[in-house]
Structure to design on (308 residues):
């Protein structure tokens, strides 16, 4: 394991301010001994909130577990938000960006979500059982065939130099991991669909749809494994940001760091879709490939302009 020095573009006043709040919070709760002193917890939280360090890296650097790193960050966020009207106000007042977009995405980082270690352990068990099921090979091949006959203009193509032959298999692996995470959260939350609809990047989400399209196979898997693989399109939000609760659950399952080729921040996906749309429109397609003016019944050259 290699280590290296790093800096956080914040003043020591911010560090001391957060440390004092954490110290007061612990005193109020009469907390017992902690692995990290208030100052070190504040530093850990600021490294995540300001620099975007992942829970896996923080855990290694501070010599604590991934679940503990996640709890420390969430506690720091709660301490900041308790002294303001809302989390966004608190974070901006202390010179920090909100760790997630406001709305459901920010709620997803709250302590109301299942404990990181529990979700990680359960998700790893679910994935192992899926892979040991007699129908697993068929699920893999069927999902891959789905990818060859159907794809959107806004999911897979957001991957740089996307190739179906090269990327479909590793993307399928990521999709199955997310499905296991969602099933674990759903189970540990007592069937809460909102909590289970974890934020994931668009390319991974598209492969999840390919897996769930294998309805009969997934029905058998749910029955045989005794789990539910939740999915509700109306609850989906494409606001995934690196370093959030989905990443913490993923790391706690023992799967390491996500491949960044596929785990793209929503801001980066939107930037890439902007570039893709320029190409789509130049080819005669409407935005996000949702329309075109091609008349296949008329044998004439197609112009570059589109109506939508």
């Amino acid at each position: 394991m290699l280590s290296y020095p790093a800096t956080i573009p914040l003043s020591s006043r911010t560090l001391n301010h957060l440390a004092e709040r954490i110290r007061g919070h612990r005193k109020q709760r009469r907390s017992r001994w902690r692995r990290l002193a208030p100052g070190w917890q504040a530093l850990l939280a600021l490294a995540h909130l300001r620099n975007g360090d992942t829970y896996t890296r923080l855990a290694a650097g501070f010599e604590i577990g991934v679940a503990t790193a996640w709890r420390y960050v969430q506690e720091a966020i709660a301490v900041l938000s308790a002294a303001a009207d809302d989390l966004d106000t608190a974070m901006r007042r202390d010179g920090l960006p909100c760790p997630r977009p406001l709305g459901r995405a920010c709620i997803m980082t709250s302590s109301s979500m299942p404990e990181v270690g529990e979700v990680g352990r359960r998700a790893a068990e679910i994935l192992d059982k899926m892979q040991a099921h007699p129908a697993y090979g068929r699920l893999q091949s069927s999902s891959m065939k789905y990818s060859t006959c159907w794809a959107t203009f806004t999911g897979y193509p957001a991957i740089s130099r996307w190739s179906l032959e090269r990327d479909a298999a590793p993307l399928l692996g990521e999709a199955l991991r997310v499905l296991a995470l969602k099933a674990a959260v759903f189970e540990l939350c007592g069937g809460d669909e909102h909590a289970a609809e974890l934020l994931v990047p668009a390319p991974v989400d598209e492969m999840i749809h390919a897996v769930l399209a294998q309805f009969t196979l997934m029905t058998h898997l749910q029955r045989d494994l005794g789990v539910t693989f939740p999915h509700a399109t109306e609850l989906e939000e494409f606001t995934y940001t690196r370093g959030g609760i989905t990443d913490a659950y993923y790391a706690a399952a023992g799967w390491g760091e996500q491949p960044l080729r596929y785990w793209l921040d929503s801001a980066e996906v939107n930037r890439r879709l902007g570039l893709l749309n320029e190409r789509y429109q130049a080819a005669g397609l409407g935005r996000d490939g949702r329309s075109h003016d091609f008349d296949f019944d008329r044998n004439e050259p197609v112009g570059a302009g589109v109506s939508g």
Notes: The longest helix spans residues 164-188. Confidence is low (pLDDT under 50) at residues 99-111. The chain has 14 helices and no strands.
